[in-house]
Amino acid sequence: MQKDINIWDLDTVDALDPILTLTGHKDSVLDLSWNSLTRKTLASVSADKTARLWDLETKKVSLSFFMLKTISISVYLFRLRRSLIFTSATSKVLPFIP
Length: 98
Prior knowledge:
Blueprint: E1 5-7, E2 20-22, E3 29-34, E4 41-46, E5 50-55, E6 60-66, E7 74-79, E8 83-88, E9 93-96
Antiparallel strand pairs: 1-2, 3-4, 4-5, 5-6, 7-8, 8-9
């Protein structure tokens, strides 16, 4: 597992390099989730106990939060009227509303 997020263009045959690399996590990235309505937003969780929202147009973190007691192992990002982020750890689901 690695701490960088690589995004590849699957329409490019035999691509040697990703089209975008997102850096910022200090430990392995465990899960990713796209926003279904705003394709420019990506959510990630890491073994560094952080969850991040990435703006793919600016290639920067738009929001980051630290989970004090647990490492999240999955993330789900969706948008109704505003963005909601759900991260899950062993037996808990932790909602975060930015």
